[in-house]
Design a protein that fits this description.
mainly alpha; 8 helices; binds zinc ion
Length: 111
């Protein structure tokens, strides 16, 4: 059972994907002109811990980005910055790193 690992964002996958604020901002602006969203995205960019405090982030962004661009957002996910924020992404990474079997398996090159 120690090899069964739960990977869980604080609310939904968008809780992490919206951290890709450089990609998120133009996707939002292409759909509408929202000062509220511009403000939110600026706050998430300045303080990576803030997004973990949003209840139902996909609902907050349902009028524009929602879950329509998850692959593009994943490709520009600022992992190091989000890790350093010390919230749900950090906790998930550390949970994975605490699994000796996983760390050992990843340390061997695939042949
Ligand atoms: Zn928007």
């Amino acid at each position: 059972m120690c090899r069964l690992l739960v990977l869980s964002p604080c609310y939904s996958m968008e809780s992490w994907l919206y951290q890709a604020t450089n990609e998120l901002r133009p996707l939002c602006q292409n759909e509408h002109d929202s000062d509220d969203h511009a403000q939110l995205i600026a706050e998430w960019s300045e303080d990576r811990a803030r997004l973990d405090e949003v209840h139902q982030p996909k609902v907050v962004m349902k009028k524009c980005v929602a879950d329509h661009h998850n692959e593009a957002l994943a490709n520009s996910f600022p992992a190091e910055e989000v890790y350093c924020a010390g919230r749900s992404f950090y906790e998930s990474v550390e949970n994975l790193r605490s699994c000796t079997a996983l760390v050992e398996a990843l340390s061997h090159p695939v042949t």
